Every structure is written in structure tokens, then in C-alpha cells.
Amino acid sequence: MKRDTTRTRKISPWLGLLGLLGFISPILYIELSNPNALLFLGFFGFFGFYFEGKMSNTLRDERFQYNEQRAVATASKITHVSMAFILIITVNWVSQRGIEIAYTFLVATLALLWALQISLPLGLLYYYENKE
Predict the structure, then answer these.
(1) Are 42 and 115 in contact (CB under 8 A)?
(2) Residue 25 CA, distance from chain mean position
(3) Three-state DSSP class for 122?
């Protein structure tokens, strides 16, 4: 069975609740200094399923594709500027507070930015499609 490429896939917006799994980690005593912080912070990316579900079964016309490209470009710009800013702060922290705190801060913030890179384009696409 071929997938229909003229429409977006059909999923339920309720899958966005999977993003709440990221809040379970403090209950499980996972520390931010642990490299496994990427695992639980990555769950925040599942919040994007809410917006993808809201756009479920939408016609992929020229306007949709333009808005999709615009949303990805905007999200990439925001996350890359944020990463540069975070790296500058981290370099200052290494000289002032030590490498352990800087490493913890870097792992946590880069994981959050990674999750933002996943979910922000979907939210922006939903905004661009419903704004007009």
C-alpha cells in the first residue's frame, strides 16, 4: 500500500502527552550531571506530536510546503543562535566555576535545544497555517 504524499499523516494530538515523560526523570532521581540527561530531556521533543496531530490529514499544497520550509528555517535559526550563546556562557563558566558545572550546564541546555529543534518547527507550522 502506497502512502498518500498529498496529505500529512494521520496521528492523534494526544500523542503530544508523551512529552510529559520528560517530567518523570526527577521522580526517578536522574541527575543533570549524568550524560543520560539527554534521554529524559529528549522526551520534550514529543510535545511536537500535539501540533502534528492538529495538522493531521492536511493537504500538502504549495502554501503548506512554503510554510513548512519557513518554519524549519526559523526554528534552525533560533536554535543555532541559542547554541552559540550557550557555548559562550559555558566558556566563561569554565574559567570561573569549574569544568564540572560547565559540563552539566552544557549537556542540559544542548539537550533542551535539541528537543526545541524537533518540536518548534511543528508548532511554527501550525501557527503559520492558521494565521492566514
Answers:
(1) yes
(2) 18
(3) helix
Rounded distance between C-alpha atoms, residue 50 and residue 18, angstroms: 9
Q: Would you say 58 and 13 are in contact if contact means Cβ atoms under 8 Å apart?
A: no
Q: Which position has the higher pLDDT, 30 or 12?
A: 12
Q: φ, ψ for residue 123 (rounded to 5)?
A: -65, -40
- Whose CA is closest to 66, among 131, 132, 1, 129? 129
All cell numbers assigned to 124: 511554527
Task: Burial-class residue 53 by CB neighbours within 10 Å (0-12, 13-18, 19+).
Answer: buried
DSSP assignment of 33-49: TSTTHHHHHHGGGGGHH
Q: What pLDDT is recorded for position 72?
A: 95
Query: What gap in Å lies between CA 128 and CA 76, rounded to an integer?
Result: 16
- Nearest-angstrom CA–CA distance, 41 and 30: 11
- pLDDT class of 83 with cuts at 50, 70, 90: very high
Q: How many CB atoms within 10 Å of residue 49?
A: 21
